[in-house]
Amino acid sequence: MFGSSKSNYIFAIFDALVTMLVVGVSFYYAASSLLNLLIVAFIFTFSIAIVLSLKGFYKLKTYKPKNLYLLFEGIFFASSLAGLVSIPFAGGFSFFLVLFDVLSIFVLYLLTRLACFIFKKIFTHTKNVLIVGAGQDGKLIAEEIQTRPELGLKVVGFLDDNMDSIVEEDSTIPILGLTYDSKAVIKDNNIDIVIIAVKSRMDSNILTDLAYGIPLGIKVWRMPTFYAHIAKKLYVSKMTVNWLFYNYVRPKHVIYSHVKCGLDKLAALAILLITLPITIIAMLIIKFSDFGPIFYTQTRIGKFGKPFRMVKFRTMYQDNVDESFDDDLIELETNDKRIMPFCKWMRNFHVDDIPQMINIIKGEMSLIGPRPVREDVYYKNKENIEFWECRNWVRPGWTGWQQIHTNNPVPEECLAYDLYYIRYRKLCWDICIFVKYVLKVISGKCS
User: Fold this and answer.
1) Domains of the chain
2) What are the tens digits of pLDDT across the range 135-170?
3) Are 10 and 60 in contact (CB under 8 A)?
4) How far apart are CA 390 and CA 373, in angstroms?
């Protein structure tokens, strides 16, 4: 986004090159062959990249002093793990080689980030933002920008012709004028970005004022589009959902849907085979905990409102199983007496969701998509939350965009993330979501 996100990709690529260079030099004589050296370098690079990604070092963020410790901690932990894994390829584990790698990589990473910081201070500047519309939508996008200083944006002020629509709240952001003042306001305040946050349809006079006042080259955004870019979820309104519909029916999604369906089934079979030892252990634990049924099924709503029976491993005592309970929406306490003692780890690492691969193979679910909800939840939200049924335009998922961003089960928040996924869905993004979810589960941050 706005140049800052590009630097994070550059950091990731440069970090990988630095890691491979340092490990290549340090293990040059320890590895018995060039192939083994490349394997060791890859193990270190992959381990550090994964750990730093989990710690959020490749996300758009502001850096604080404590990040230095977290960076060192991540490099040390990843390098230690990589050193142990690399023993068969490096001719034995050497503590001093790993320590050299940790210190060298940490110093080079710091130098890279320091150089980038100095470059930004000298050659880049905070971009000034002007918002057209000081109503509810305008105030909302201003707040979203202010809470994200890492974007490098500053809201200078508002333009608004309709004083009746302005939200009467104390604000540090001034109203700089009317739309016909746009040319002078943009020039006087060195505006870089203009965001149109007028909810109603603008008449020709306002459009003419803006067309005359906004110089060519100034970036102009619609508020819902800008909101989606910085928040990674849709601003759910009539305008954005109409836009979502026309995107949904585009021909490119026909091929995507068929390819994804086939890949979902192959991936589900692979997951069942890979997790077979874990599922066997889980089944034995469940069976011998209270000698009840191993599986638990519940009616959930699928694509276009079609109900189906979703399968899970039973983790509660048989007497406490409740058909109306939905653990996708209700967060359980760790000491909940309804959960069987040896089944708590299954819930923490979402092992109880593995049987849903059966639903995927049957075509009732997808690997990635909005999580399915119970019938009563679906119809309640459909009645009370506008556009709720739009999340069912695609098959429900084993996991999704919302699950890797927040554990907050508020329906409105879920809908915003789910519609964002439907708007931008593509195969490569599905793979990224799946990898991020698995890493989040392994790290214990998804419970």
Assistant:
1) 4-123 (no CATH), 127-231 (3.40.50.720), 252-442 (no CATH)
2) 889 999 999 999 988 788 999 999 988 765 555 555
3) no
4) 14
